[in-house]
């Protein structure tokens, strides 16, 4: 029987007994640490407040409710609440009850120390830790994989969504079934047609972001144990998909301007069985290149010759810095072997997670897998995005974002060249919003990652972009966020940390 239950029973028994005209008080002591029960209850409530379970100004349970929840007497709760008032945790409001006062939250342990980095790096934990540090500690988001949502018209899209929700009190689940909302599919097909990509709307399957599109496409063309060829470095979300599905990745050297080494890929295909290839030909994350058209054609021809499907991640397709949207591998596909994946998350709104796949000859299988995996993509976000595409200035919005990113890329490159030590080199992004930085060879990017976190700065260490612990002296930086005095100071401090680690590494040789 728990101490709290014992206390309730003893309290009921002692209520009837008096000693010298004074009612006996029942405060059961915890047998392990001899703390009175009301103190223990007060400590638990205070800990919950400091962890953020109860927010400042929020009303907590009434005395009677707390008595029932914790199985203690009302008197015990009253004493606990009185103790919390004396500690400044709670305050009483007449006729209203007990409310939480503003109490400083306990400082969190640095996230960098929570990451166990041995000979192998747990990429998914590293990515999650970086994102949590940005959210929890308001760290400078150079390490974020997501664009700054500030320039996006998410308020306007929310207005469309709210209007749709008001018009339709309920949705028929049948309307949500794959392939997706017909009007959204039509709008997506129209954008491709306007950019010279012949697309059959019947081929498009709406997904929950590009991540689901990639996962479904990979499931459609490969099975557990198969080998998938990827660029090196490559975007870690693609490595996650391969790992999650029990497949193996083989990394192919990738040029920072021209893309995947097609001759090296041909040698890999000659040596072993490759089930599929996964690439980002436009504004690859993290290198930022735009693969030349002739190399795109050669890549598709090589893979078609061997009947190898290629999953094309074209999520940054709209974020080009040139005069026209670049071609996709889909432009050169004659056999239906290109599974093209994209989304609006990087160019319009990340909140609704609307993506799509154009899987070529694998379309029926992808649609079936979509149904089996997640059943549907919610209708309201689909219709809201379709309404925005049809009625608002998406192209005008994109022109503003492209101009902004192009300017901020130049600023970031100039600042890295200015603040970082000799031996640092940067990529030359042709689109997107990330910069790949090669540090002096003595700098360990994981040590830099930890040191940066302690200074309130996040970076993307190069080891996240490979399964082989490669790129140990590279980092990826996000330049989509506004350039401010804070971000400039953070980049200057980052350069100082790089210099310190470089000097220390050289001294240890």
UniProtKB/TrEMBL annotation:
<keyword id="KW-0238">DNA-binding</keyword>
<dbReference type="Pfam" id="PF00392">
    <property type="entry name" value="GntR"/>
</dbReference>
<feature type="domain" description="HTH gntR-type">
    <location>
        <begin position="35"/>
        <end position="103"/>
    </location>
</feature>
<dbReference type="InterPro" id="IPR015424">
    <property type="entry name" value="PyrdxlP-dep_Trfase"/>
</dbReference>
<keyword id="KW-0808">Transferase</keyword>
<keyword id="KW-0663">Pyridoxal phosphate</keyword>
<dbReference type="GO" id="GO:0003677">
    <property type="term" value="F:DNA binding"/>
</dbReference>
<keyword id="KW-0805">Transcription regulation</keyword>
<dbReference type="GO" id="GO:0030170">
    <property type="term" value="F:pyridoxal phosphate binding"/>
</dbReference>
<dbReference type="InterPro" id="IPR051446">
    <property type="entry name" value="HTH_trans_reg/aminotransferase"/>
</dbReference>
<dbReference type="InterPro" id="IPR036388">
    <property type="entry name" value="WH-like_DNA-bd_sf"/>
</dbReference>
<dbReference type="InterPro" id="IPR015421">
    <property type="entry name" value="PyrdxlP-dep_Trfase_major"/>
</dbReference>
<dbReference type="InterPro" id="IPR000524">
    <property type="entry name" value="Tscrpt_reg_HTH_GntR"/>
</dbReference>
<protein>
    <submittedName>
        <fullName>Transcriptional regulator, GntR family domain / Aspartate aminotransferase</fullName>
        <ecNumber>2.6.1.1</ecNumber>
    </submittedName>
</protein>
<dbReference type="InterPro" id="IPR004839">
    <property type="entry name" value="Aminotransferase_I/II_large"/>
</dbReference>
<keyword id="KW-0804">Transcription</keyword>
<dbReference type="Pfam" id="PF00155">
    <property type="entry name" value="Aminotran_1_2"/>
</dbReference>
<dbReference type="GO" id="GO:0003700">
    <property type="term" value="F:DNA-binding transcription factor activity"/>
</dbReference>
<keyword id="KW-0032">Aminotransferase</keyword>
<dbReference type="GO" id="GO:0004069">
    <property type="term" value="F:L-aspartate:2-oxoglutarate aminotransferase activity"/>
</dbReference>
<dbReference type="InterPro" id="IPR036390">
    <property type="entry name" value="WH_DNA-bd_sf"/>
</dbReference>
<dbReference type="InterPro" id="IPR015422">
    <property type="entry name" value="PyrdxlP-dep_Trfase_small"/>
</dbReference>
<comment type="similarity">
    <text>In the C-terminal section; belongs to the class-I pyridoxal-phosphate-dependent aminotransferase family.</text>
</comment>
């Amino acid at each position: 029987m728990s101490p709290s239950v014992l206390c309730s029973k003893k309290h009921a028994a002692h209520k009837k007994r008096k000693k010298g005209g004074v009612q006996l008080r029942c405060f059961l002591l915890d047998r392990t640490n001899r703390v009175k029960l009301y103190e223990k209850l007060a400590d638990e409530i205070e800990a919950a407040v400091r962890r953020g379970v109860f927010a400042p100004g929020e009303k907590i349970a009434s005395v009677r409710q707390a008595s029932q929840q914790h199985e203690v007497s009302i008197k015990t709760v009253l004493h606990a609440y009185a103790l919390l008032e004396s500690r400044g945790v709670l305050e009483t409001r007449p006729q209203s009850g007990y409310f939480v006062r503003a109490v400083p939250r306990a400082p969190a342990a640095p996230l960098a120390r929570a990451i166990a980095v041995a000979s192998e790096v747990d990429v998914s934990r590293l990515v999650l830790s970086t994102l949590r540090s940005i959210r929890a500690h308001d760290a400078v988001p150079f390490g974020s994989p997501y664009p700054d949502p500030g320039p996006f018209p998410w308020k306007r899209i929310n207005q469309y969504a709210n209007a749709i929700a008001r018009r339709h009190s309920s949705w028929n689940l049948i309307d949500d079934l794959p392939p997706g909302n017909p009007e959204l599919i039509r709008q997506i097909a129209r954008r491709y047609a306007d950019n010279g990509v012949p697309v059959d709307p019947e081929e498009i399957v709406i997904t929950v972001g590009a991540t689901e599109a990639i996962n479904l496409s990979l499931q459609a063309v490969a099975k557990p144990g198969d080998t998938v060829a990827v660029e090196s470095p490559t975007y870690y979300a693609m490595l996650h998909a391969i790992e999650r599905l029990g497949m193996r990745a083989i990394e192919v050297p990738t040029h920072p301007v021209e893309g995947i080494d097609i001759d090296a890929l041909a040698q890999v295909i000659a040596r072993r069985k490759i089930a599929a290839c996964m690439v980002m030909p436009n504004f690859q994350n993290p290198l930022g290149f735009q693969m030349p058209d002739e190399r795109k054609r050669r890549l598709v021809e090589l893979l078609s010759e061997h009947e190898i499907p290629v999953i094309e991640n074209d999520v940054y397709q709209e974020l080009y810095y040139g005069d026209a949207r670049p071609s996709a591998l889909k432009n050169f596909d004659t056999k239906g072997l290109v599974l093209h994946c994209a989304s609006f998350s990087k160019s319009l709104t990340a909140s609704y997670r609307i993506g799509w796949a154009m899987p070529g000859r694998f379309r029926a299988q992808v649609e079936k897998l979509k149904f089996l995996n997640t059943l549907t993509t919610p209708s309201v976000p689909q219709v809201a995005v379709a309404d925005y595409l049809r009625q608002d200035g998406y192209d005008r919005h994109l022109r503003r974002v492209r101009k902004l990113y192009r300017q901020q890329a130049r600023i970031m490159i100039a600042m890295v060249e200015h603040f970082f030590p000799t031996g640092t080199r940067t990529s030359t992004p042709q689109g997107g919003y990330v910069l790949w930085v090669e540090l002096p060879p003595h700098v360990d990017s994981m040590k830099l990652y930890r040191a940066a976190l302690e200074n309130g700065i996040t970076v993307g260490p190069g080891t996240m972009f490979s399964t082989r612990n490669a790129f140990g002296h590279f980092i990826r930086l996000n330049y989509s966020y506004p350039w401010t005095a804070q971000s400039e100071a953070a980049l200057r401090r980052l350069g100082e940390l790089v210099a310190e680690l470089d000097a220390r590494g050289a001294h240890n040789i």
